[in-house]
Amino acid sequence: MSAPFPWASENAESRLEAALSRATGDTAAASVFIKLLEDRARKQAKAASSIKRPLDGALISIKALFDVAGETTTSATTVLANHPPARADAVAIARLDAAGGIFVGITNMSEFAYSGLGLNPHYGTPQNPTYPGCAPGGSTSGGAVSVALGICDIAIGSDTGGSLRIPATYTGITGFKPTQESVTMTGGKPLSDSLDSFGPMAKSVAECELAWQVMAGRNVSPITPAATHLIIPTNFGFTEIDPEVAKSFEALTRLLHDSGLKVIEKELACMKLYDEVPPWHMTSVESRAHYEDHFQASPEQFDPRVHARMGRAEEISAVKYRQTLNRRMDFIAAFNEELGPASLLLPTTPKLPPKIEDLEDDDTFNRMNLLALRNPSLGNVADACSIALPYQHDGNTVSAMLIARGGRDKALLACAKVVEEAIRKF
User: Fold this and answer.
1) Where along the chain do the CATH 3.90.1300.10 domains lie?
2) 230-276+314-423: which CATH topology?
3) Active site includes 139?
């Protein structure tokens, strides 16, 4: 591969042993993994040098909602803990295995992937190494921390309203939400059939690109950097924003201008349609459809906040739900037409990670959760592809998000490489 990846088949076994040692002995890694996969990982590492494959030597963590052969798929809830183990890997996971990936372990997450902050009352909450004492971001919390700590090279997760991009933002790594249809969801526990996507997190665009190509069953080939013009939507994403986030985004905009990228500010007419598509209609109704028996029979085993959000399905009639889906299709058509070949540029989240102690209050938790999800959810409702890119400004780790219309994943990654290179000038 032309990209300078940090892994190699020659040092796969030694890197794995160092990762396993940290995962079990480093207090910073507490609650990151629900289960380590030592035996399988050692076999994978031993085989890494036998043939040349794209991911030989790459250490990978797997979110707890993916089927892993021989393991129970818990979605980080005790409700599913006694289910029989999976008979086979999820399709995307099997592809990573065939490409030479080494599976370090199964990572913690928000229960059922139903939170953007990453807290879990059953398995503990992973510590944020970038903002100590703050939420790690969710729902792919353990995956993000596994990469931020350097235990794993790539984390595999899901994204329903920002669940790859929010934890990437909070921990200072890169998170890529592909177009939903590009990666099959066979063998993954759903939250929302309408909004879920499977994708990777890593420390660079190139690493995310490689993992996505493997997960999607595509030819593995580096995408050439190429800029599309960027649109900053003036009527979305900038209210209730922290001063540090606003200041850093303004500095990034100037930097991109100075680097020769075309960046324009523009009001998006399609956002009027977006306002008529509440994402929670889809997440609450569709999650209930999958977990209704557990919802009714074992409410005491749920995270109370997750149970309450699922319970909101009862506020929505079948007619209202169908109307929401219809309006979403109208919005997607308008979004695609208005955006064209361009990409949106936004702060990934309007606020820095909240302190965990402040989230003990339900009202504060709900408000901060909605704010964390607000900007990235646009990409899910639009059936788009999106990537969160970290950068440093005035001592803060922050993140910029690109969103392109669905199916333009390669163009988005090409543009992200250009933006990533410009960001290095900070």
Assistant:
1) 9-215, 230-276+314-423
2) Amidase signature (AS) enzymes (3.90.1300)
3) yes
Beta bridge partners of 389: 400
Question: What's the CA gap between 87 and 34, in Å, rounded?
Answer: 19
Per-residue pLDDT tens, the chain, 426 aa: give them.
345 799 999 999 999 999 999 999 999 999 999 999 999 999 999 998 777 899 999 999 999 999 999 999 999 999 999 999 999 999 999 999 999 999 999 999 999 999 999 999 999 999 999 999 999 999 999 999 999 999 999 999 999 999 999 999 999 999 999 999 999 999 999 999 999 999 999 999 999 999 999 999 999 999 999 999 999 999 999 999 999 999 999 999 999 999 999 999 999 999 999 999 999 999 999 999 999 999 999 999 999 999 999 999 999 999 999 999 999 999 999 999 999 999 999 999 999 999 999 999 999 999 999 999 999 999 999 999 999 999 999 999 999 999 999 999 999 999 999 999 999 988
Q: Considering 75, 141, 163, 287, which one is annotated as catalytic?
A: 163
Q: Which one is catalytic: 9, 61, 139, 146? A: 139
pTM, two decimal places: 0.98
Give the count of beta carbons closer than 10 Å to the beta carbon of residue 78.
16
Classify domain 9-215 at the CATH superfamily level. Answer: Amidase signature (AS) domain (3.90.1300.10)
CA distance 313 to 309: 8
> Of 61, 63, 192, 197, which is the active-site residue?
63
Q: Is 158 a catalytic residue?
A: no
Residue whose entry in the numeric block shows the structure tokens 């989240």: 349
| Residue 203 bears catalytic tag | no
